[in-house]
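Run folding on both entries below.
>entry_1
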Amino acid sequence: MLNRHTKQYTKIANYILVVCSLFVSNLSQAQCAMCRASLESSGDHSQAEALNDGIVYLMVIPYVLVAVVGYVVYKMFVKKKNSNL
């Protein structure tokens, strides 16, 4: 059974996740349009490499955010569990 504090932390974590996903989706759409425009205007090989770097960057950020939030939540639960002993 979840206690009151756990439910409160879950609500806060859900709100943070929704807000972060809204910001990431807007940034990724803008980035894709910018990359496509730069590739269409130039046939340079370095532009294709820049596009690949941009895709990897956009792909990594959500995973890092989820990992950080997960680590913080894990540490909160461990700290609370140790304080109850």
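>entry_2
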Amino acid sequence: GLVFEDTRILIANTITANNDVEWLDWDTEQIVTLDMLRDVDPDNLELAVSGEVWLKMVKNRPDLAQEFAPKIRVFGRCTPIAKVSIIDMFNKEGNVTLMCGDGGNDCGALKTAHVGIAMSEAEASMVAPFTATEKNLTAVVDVLKEGRCALASAFASYKFMLMVGLTHNVVQFAAAYFRLTLSPLTWALHDGGWVLSLAFSLPLAKASRKLAPSRPTSSLLGSHTMHSFLGVLIINVTFLVAAFFVLFGQSWFQCRKWENSFMGTAWGLGDNYESTILFLIPGYQLMATAAAYNFGFAHRASWGTNLAFVFFFVFWTILQLYIILVPSELSCLLSVNCQEENTILGMEISNVYNTTLMPLDFRWKLVGLLLANLVVVCGWEYFVVNGGEMRRTRRRCEEVDGAWKLHHHQDEEQRRPLKPGSSDQLLSSSPSSSRKRSGAQIV
């Protein structure tokens, strides 16, 4: 319901000669003046006003209209002009407004509100961005779920693309340190394959079935965003450094050595084990990062329901494992596990050893590092970042529930049901309500 049972309800009765609002107590039928109203506890008070009185208040006492608008729970018998005036007042106060209407005289208010939902396929649907064909108020919940899903997906894409840029920077810094570069085809696979497909499919997640008790973050530099982003970045850099330490600890490893003939082409600086690590590890880290950000948390559907993303993730993972474990012409194109017999005509191995083949046991170590990186990144995002937010949300809800139960336990003997009234009767609150209602009903 809109109002708790033990809440005091005042109805705007009329506008006095000196342009003050005269209020009528719903329970006692006592006249309440403006000065008396301001002395009433605002936490235990709800206001109702008719459209006629509201327009007079806006015209004669705009200061009172601005003061009482957030406290008015029900606006009754409103004309189209009154409805537009009400929405406009809330918009001017910096609120985000949502308006539902069944068409006809609701068109102006539907257009004025930030979010308009038409419960009809008639003319109202032409000015409202959303239309509910079933004419059910549950459409409001659907719009909120879709909006929150869109916001969460936008932030997931934002964090992923930010991570792509920083990952490429890390690769470039490491390449400059080792005085080498990746082959052109590896960069093409990075940007044209992995990044393009994952960035395209990541926002395609559907909305969650249930409306979460809190909205997703809207801050680019908020704690939730920064914990998610910086945590994944630190984990990825740590695994990249660990991969180099594992490589340098191998008995067969030799640092890259060049001849002058290798320096005339970009391919000449990519045939070495350091470039192999810089291609394989950061490349799969992009996939692991996208997989972590694909978690729906409370606002998007579960991980596996984003079928387009699952397809690309599985496809690129299998391809990456194939490149690592199986020496072939494909791996030679990417300067990984390349031998003379696997080279393509005209693409010789540009190092003094004439090979970039890694021992099988080391290839399995790389696979273990990649999968461990995936598990740690997903665990950080799921349990630490999203799990921490879920625990904070649950704690806030429990605090509100506890305060509500304590308040109603103390006032249990003083509760009075609402008096039966006309068709504009206010709805009583549900015993399962957990917090003070927000929003207003315009009829």
